[in-house]
Amino acid sequence: MKKKTLGGMLAVAGLVLAGLIVIRIVMGRDAEDRVAEGELVDFNHLPAVEKQGRFLMCPKDFCSRAPDAEAPVFAMEWEQLRDLWSEAVARQPRVKLVAGDGERRKIVYVQHSPLLRLPDIVTIEFVPLPDGKSSFAIESRARFGWTDFGGNAERVRAWVALVESVAKKS
User: Fold this and answer.
1) Where does 26-153 show beta strands of DSSP type E?
2) Edge-to-edge order in the sheet of strand 106-112
3) Which of 155, 56, 131, 42 is nearest to 163 (CA)?
4) What crossing angle do the helices spanning 78-90 and 151-169 adopt, rounded to 10°?
5) What is the mean pLDDT of residues 49-67?
6) CB distance 92 to 155 below 8 Å
7) d(CA 119, CA 29)
8) pTM of the prediction?
9) What pLDDT is recorded for position 167?
10) Beta-bridge mates of residue 109
């Protein structure tokens, strides 16, 4: 009985893995690195219901929905914060800048997972604050699947910590 259960579980795992490989081949890198209009984040008009596989960090009272964490405030103009952010993110593995507005106040990245190269979409909008300060709103989300196993929260927190450490040095 135990051999049949183990064999069945291995068969299911094999089918899931084969399905992921097929998806990987069919989607192709070019399609994954484009952001569709429905995937663009408007932090002032977020859906009321939060989906799994997402992590949201915003300055106080900036986003239309309560964030998972409050974004830090930096003692610099938003353009300088953007430049520090862009420099830090450029050093991250498997990250590609795929969209941005004219001023680059809002930037969209795709980062691929290490093993299957599945894409996660990261949107950041830099927020000018009074007295020469700034912050940002950021959402990181899995494009496919129902969960991210905490990967999006981990990514955002790591990137923010990196930018905070660079900002302290400048």
Assistant:
1) 54-58, 69-70, 95-100, 106-112, 119-129, 133-142
2) 69-70, 54-58, 133-142, 119-129, 106-112, 95-100
3) 155
4) 120
5) 88
6) no
7) 9
8) 0.78
9) 86
10) 97, 122
